[in-house]
Each structure stands twice: as C-alpha cells, then as structure tokens.
Amino acid sequence: MKMQIDAQRLRSDFDALAAIGVTPDGGVDRSALNDAHLEARRWFLERADAAGLETAVDAAGNHSALLRAHDANAPTLLLGSHLDSVPNGGRYDGALGVLAALEVLRTVRDAELELPVTLEAIDFTDEEGTLVGLLGSYAVAGLPLELANPRGGRDVLVEALARAGLEESRLTDARRDPSQLVAYLELHIEQGPRLEGAGVQIGVVTAIVGARSFRVTFAGRAAHAGTTPMDARADAGLAAARFVDRVNRIVVEEFPDAVATVGALELEPGAFNVVAGLAHVSLEFRAQDEETLDRLQARLFEGVDAQVEPVARWEPTPLDPDVRTAIAGAADELGLSWRELTSGAGHDAQALANVTRSGMLFVPSQNGVSHNPAEHTSWDDCVNGANVLLHAALALSRR
Ligand code: HGY
Ligand code: MN
Ligand code: MN
C-alpha cells in the first residue's frame, strides 16, 4: 500500500479551521488580515508546533511550518496555498491546500523519511486580493508590490498591515533566493465544473489565466429625482448599467474564451431621490493569453466616456512541466484518474512560477461552485488530493 496521509488528522484540522471565521450560512469570512484570518494563522502555527515542526513568519506575514533536512544547506520544496478567504467565501478555497501541505510534512516526519530537501508548508498573505492580491507570494518571488493604490484601497491596506504588525517598508524582505527553492506545489479545489463533469478525480494544471482589473468612473449630474425630466438627466447610474450590459454582450459574443465581471458598483450620492452624479464600477476580465487580454481591453473601453483607472494585472502563466509530470505520476501511482486543464482562477502558484518550478493540482468542486458558502468538495476527493500532493512532493524532492 502506497504511503498515505492521515485522513482523520487532516479531517479534524479541516473542521477546526472551518470554524474560524465561520459565517451563519456555513461559509467563512477570513478576509486578509481580519481578526478571523489572524486567528486562523495563530491556529495553524499551534498545529505545526504541536506536531513538533519548526514554524516561521516572514516579513510579508507568510506563515510556515518546516520539516528541515539534515543538511542545513538543503534547498526547500514549498507546499502551500492561503488561509485568507473572500468575504463570505467557502471552507475549501486555499484552506485545503495549506492543511494538506501541513499533513504532508507530518506524514513524512512520522515515516522518518530522510529527504534531501527541507519541506515547507506555507500560508501566503492576501492571496484573494482583499488588500492587494497575491501579496505574500509576490513578496516571496521578489515581484513588484502595488501598494500605492491597491485593489482593496490604500486605507484598508494600511489598517490591515498595522493590525497584523507588518511594516510596509519591510514586506519585500520576504523575498527568497530562488536558488534555494526546489519547486512550489499547490493543491487547490478547481472552483469550476470541469473535473466533476468529466468524472475525473485529479486535475493537472497546465497554465493559469491572466487577469486585469480597473476602476471605471462614470460622471453624470446629481439632480432631483422628482423634478428633473427624463430627457434632461445626466444619469451616471444609467451610464454604468449600460456599460455593464455592454461588457457582458462583448465577451459573450466576441470573446468566448474570456470572462469579465463587474463585482462592485457604487452610485453617488446613493439616495432614492437623487439622480446619480457618479457611478463607480469595478471591472475585472481574464483570458489565457496576452494578445486576447489586449484585444479585449481595447474593445471594452472603445468609445466609453468614463475615467478608467488600472488597478491590478496578473500575467497568464504556464506551469512547470516537471511538476505536472510529478503530479500525473503520483495520480497514476495511486490509481486515480487525471486530466490536464487550465485554471480560470488566479493562484499563488503564478507568482512562484517567476522564481521556481511551480505547479498545481486540482480536486473537483461540487457543481463548480466556489467563492460561496455552498462551496464543497467530497472528503474522498480531498484525501485523494492530499495523497497526490504527498507523492508528487516526494518525487520532486528527489529531482
Ligand atoms: O480571484 C481568483 O481567481 C482567486 O480566487 N484569488
Ligand atoms: Mn484560492
Ligand atoms: Mn479564491
């Protein structure tokens, strides 16, 4: 029987973590560096400590458990994901990857395996972009951090860093020496319907889509809702609504392989009896390659009379062939079905791909639902994913 993780131990961790920041409808709200997220991070270090593992927190707040190689100069194989969530998100997004990584370290330690690498289970700061997006993994990879005008707003960022005791000027100290990294490997739920639809147990991720986000502001003229004739209005809310509908039609009709989302829309002054003078639209779109993203960006803003402010940009990222081979090989060894697929969601793996061999494996999401309290993956699939993570890590540690 191939070495297996301790499914019971993983389950009890999963249930304990899901209770931290739990929302009334069974989801979690662990927005980056909020109280629940900080509590989850403390809990994670306690679990690592209780397992006799070394723990560390870097200058970007990334939290790690480590199982050191005997050779003090051994390189590190990073396994991980993120404990932060979207507001009112699901229990599996990010959490499964961090807990499975911790479980891999405990399983290797229990088996007294001597590996030529240090194994590190890492929880990256602000993967979800409540503050910046991929903040912790960008810092580890030494990539530029967008802190002046971040996605979640400057004030929110400053307040969150202060709450977590992180110094903005030191975030970049978290950068790792790439020569000390063997690879990065992440287990994650698919967050889409393909694996479940195909009846496949493991997804081997080939690439991660690129994403771009913008703040689009429509200016109208605030006016009395009762006395202003309909043909005499400059209604910013109407302009924004037409833009949202146009974005949807362009993508559906002209860019079938792309997606675009308006996830937030705010009208000012925001009163029943005032025609909106301003409308703030948060737009994000994603596609698999740079050329499509460029064409889509030009098309969406063509002829639009609004202020357009770029906010964040993540490049399309191919994942490493060695890591893909290790994941597929582990799934085969465990007798699990697998298929290759791209990721429509962004992940820390795309940051790490800039500095080391980086790869991901997915497990099915029930009905493809994610970023929603109804997010669910069967426990068998979670355990399968953790075992593939274990065996892919063992394979990569020998290369
Ligand atoms: O937004 C994403 O794609 C990821 O869930 N952070
Ligand atoms: Mn995630
Ligand atoms: Mn997510």
Mean pLDDT: 97
Enumerate the spans where pLDDT stays under 50 for 5 or more consecutive residues.
Answer: none
Helix and strand string, N-terminal first? HHEEEHEHHEHEEEHEEEHEEHEHEH
Q: Alpha-carbon distance between the termini?
A: 23 Å
Number of strands: 15
Bound ligands: (2S)-amino(hydroxy)ethanoic acid, manganese (II) ion
Class inferred from helices and paired strands: alpha/beta
* Radius of gyration computed on alpha carbons: 22 Å
How much of the sequence lies in strands comes to: 15-25%
Share of helix, binned: 25-40%
Question: Helix count?
Answer: 11
The major sheet is characterized as: 9 strands, mixed
Shape descriptor: globular
What does this structure look like?
This protein has 399 residues and is of the alpha/beta class. The protein has 11 helices and 15 strands. Strands 1, 2, 3, 4, 5, 6, 13, 14 and 15 form a 9-stranded mixed sheet that branches. A 4-stranded antiparallel sheet has the order 9-11-7-12. The longest helix is centred in the middle third of the chain and has 19 residues. The model has no long low-confidence stretch (mean pLDDT 97). The chain binds (2S)-amino(hydroxy)ethanoic acid (HGY) and manganese (II) ion (MN) (2 copies). One manganese (II) ion binds next to loops.
Write a brief caption for the model.
The protein has 399 residues and is of the alpha/beta class. It has helices at residues 7-18, 35-50, 95-110, 135-141, 154-164, 194-198, 236-254, 290-301, 321-333, 348-352, 379-397; strands at residues 54-57, 63-67, 76-81, 118-123, 181-189, 202-208, 210-219, 223-224, 259-268, 274-275, 278-287, 307-314, 317-318, 338-343, 358-363. It is globular.
